[in-house]
Amino acid sequence: MDKNINKQNVYISEEENTLNWIEIQSSFKKSFGNEIYNSWLQKISLVKEYNDYLILGVPTRFFRDWIVSRYLDKILEQVKSFKLSLNRIEFKIIEENKQNQELIKIDQLNKVTEIKDSILNYNRLNPNLNFDSFIKGKSNEIALSYSKKVCDHVSRYNPLYICGGVGLGKTHLLNAIGLETQKDNNVMFISAERFMYHFIKSIKKNDMVNFKDFFRKSSVFIIDDIQFISGKESLQEEFFHTFNSLMEKGSQIIISSDRPPMKLDRVQERIKSRLSGGLVVDIEAPDLDLKIKILKKKIEEIQNQFKENINLSDEVINYIASESKTNIRELIGVLNRVIAFSRVHNKVLTTVDCKNILKDVFSQIRVITVDKIQNIVSNYFNIALSDMLSQRRSRPLARPRQIAMYLAKKMTSRSLPEIGRRFANRDHTTVIHAVKTITRLSDQDDEMKKNINQIKSLLLEQ
């Protein structure tokens, strides 16, 4: 079969495609924006069109993994608007031809400067996130203590790995270390996502030499949210060699993540081993005393910044602290809501007022995770979690599994590929099928609808 890719990235085969790929690409550009489109989506080609799914071509496996993990849901939504019967997308690796490669024009000068300027634009250290503004409590005192020690004795604890949930202060500590050490050291502070961005950009520009040189010359290397490298083999390979190079020259490495090294999903064992080889400290959820300290400190900051008196009683502060069950970031959000209400109505609030103001917030603030959904669904149907996640397809296991996938899609922000991975590395199309099946059954079957509602209530209660 003769095949070629035309200038509009439409892959021609014996069967003529009915979709207008140029028009779809135009919709991608409007929906995703120029930066994402030019970096990722422009190179997607239409390989073959079937009634209910598409095969799309991408230049490398790395492109495919990035697009699937970040944009697949929205891409599917876009193409469905052109053809309603489509319900899944598959990707095929198609090597770019020489003609396309010749169209890429690379500026050979000032490549290191380009990386450096971009890093500075996106990753400046925040002067407000220093050790003085970090509030110490039982849940974070160990992480705070060793963060300060790293500043006094660079490379003594190497790497320093700080883990903890969202909004508990990991980035604050990393930023504080950067501020404290930048006077006498070449400090690199970057998120794993931004590291990935520059890695991909350097591959596309055939500029990996300057990329390696730039990131390996720091004496203090700080990288935030390392869990982002999960499943990205090429990026992990580069991070591994960057890590080794920095360790060999005695640079201090500080890393943050939402979980301990050995619990990082789809990360090479050798990377997990090296991350575990230094000092691993965790930040736990704040206790009541720490939450009260944080609220009082924030009130003081607001008063100093806006030159106004905020009159919240200890009783009100204690109520907010005790009822907030998630993280520090959302605790501050609740406080801001109370202060805003007090300003608008010009009144001193009581606990009763706060209960009315925050009744919807405290009834909805529940951390819903895929793990939590899986556990509650398996308990609800009285089956073992390992059986529900297994490859067995019997009805007593398959239906609860589909319900769990459906709830994971509806009640979390996880993408379809992410949800599939949490269900024993199933494909995203399996999740799509589960969501469709349970949506249809809950519309037709009262018993199914009742089960879904009861499980939702259990998730919101815990």
Quick recap:
Helix content is 56%, strand content 10%.
Structural commentary:
It is a single chain. With 462 residues, the protein is of the alpha/beta class. It contains 22 helices and 10 strands. Strand 8, helix 11 (233-248) and strand 9 form a beta-alpha-beta unit. Helix 13 packs across helix 15 (328-345), helix 20 (416-422) crosses helix 21 and helix 21 (428-444) crosses helix 22. The model is unreliable at 1-16 and 96-114 (pLDDT under 50).
CATH architecture of the largest domain: 3-Layer(aba) Sandwich
* Annotation, overall tally of beta strands: 10
Average pLDDT level: 81
Overall, the morphology is globular
Beta-strand share of residues: 5-15%
CATH topology of the largest domain: Rossmann fold
| CATH superfamily membership of the largest domain | P-loop containing nucleotide triphosphate hydrolases
Order of strands, main sheet, comes to 7-8-9-6-10
Question: Keyphrases for this structure?
Answer:
Rossmann fold; 10 strands; alpha/beta; five-stranded parallel beta sheet; globular; three-stranded mixed beta sheet; Helicase, Ruva Protein, domain 3; GMP Synthetase, Chain A, domain 3
Write the layout of secondary structure elements.
Elements: E1 4-5, E2 11-12, H1 21-32, H2 34-41, E3 45-49, E4 53-58, H3 61-70, H4 72-80, E5 88-93, H5 98-103, H6 111-122, H7 141-152, E6 160-164, H8 170-181, E7 187-191, H9 192-204, H10 208-215, E8 220-224, H11 233-248, E9 252-257, H12 269-276, E10 279-283, H13 288-306, H14 314-323, H15 328-345, H16 351-364, H17 370-380, H18 385-388, H19 395-411, H20 416-422, H21 428-444, H22 446-461
Parallel strand pairs: 4-5, 6-9, 6-10, 7-8, 8-9
Antiparallel strand pairs: 1-2, 3-4
